[in-house]
Write a structure and sequence with these properties.
- The structure is a single chain.
- This protein has one domain: Orthogonal Bundle (MetI-like fold).
- The chain is built from 10 helices and no strands.
- α1 packs across α10 and α2 packs parallel to α5.
- The termini are far apart.
- It is mainly α.
- Helices cover about 80% and strands about 0% of the residues.
- The protein is flat.
Amino acid sequence: MTSENPFYLALSMIASADPNLVEITSLSLRVSGLSAALALLCGLPLGALIATKQFIGRSGVIVFFNALLGLPPVVVGLSIYLLLSRNGLLGFADLLYSPTAMIIAQFTLVFPISVALTIQLLEGLNREYDPLFLSLRITVRRRILTLLTDGRAGLVTIMLACLGRALSEVGAIIIVGGNINHVTRMMTTAIALETSRGELALAMSLGIILLLIALAINIASQFVKAHFDRALGHKG
């Protein structure tokens, strides 16, 4: 009776490193990690530039990126699907129902988050340091590098938040990825599928792993914050 318990079976699958479980988890980490890294690589510099430079339409740009924080994932998935479908603008590339399509979808969702959070973090620092920057007459590039260095604790938190958002995505990637076994099956999409099929053991095992990853991201964020707080305390 105990051996038929889904929770017990889920723990057994994790303990035995079930090949299907490892494959799905590995693909999820690769796709989400790469999409988050690309979004941060593009989003952090752009967010820093917007936070530090005054230009016409700046307020509108900030409002635009803040509005994108609430972008529905299924709308993003549909848009990417139409773009990559056979009759779409990038249909010739044959990327639909592939890990690359899922990376594009996740990038589209995470990129605005990295930009908006970077603006929020660095805008306050820029106002605080602005008199000093003006007196030293430093370039915009030096100003951005200084702010990124001083706000590094917050930037690490932004990085972890973007990774967590990518890992938890399901709506967009199931549309463009198709949840194909051994090809595009991710943790979140597999949980949805296996639950609907009544295969609770695999769904629960993936859910446990996803929760552990989320917990690890949260612990890492708190550890980084505490580390930089101690560093600032020593300097003070």
